[in-house]
Amino acid sequence: NRLQGIVANMSRIPSFRRRFMSLARALYLEAIDAGTIDGSRKVERKVKADIASEELQSRDVGDTKGSSNGTSVDVDMV
Known about the structure:
By secondary structure, the chain is mostly helical. It has helices at residues 2-10, 16-34, 42-58. It is elongated, with a radius of gyration of 16 Å. The relative contact order is 0.11. Residues 54-78 are annotated as: Disordered.
């Protein structure tokens, strides 16, 4: 039971990917506010898709929280 708590807490520690996406989101929103992005670039859609994907992963969805593609990894339910 204690090990399950440790594993659950470890999945909440910000990973490099989460920090990078947070930085990318902040820079993207700042660029929109500054008017340097006009919204016609294909990159915008990719960034929005990545942000939406990150938001889905950051929700508490049980054992899929630590995986990059939404599948459970290294979890044994007894």
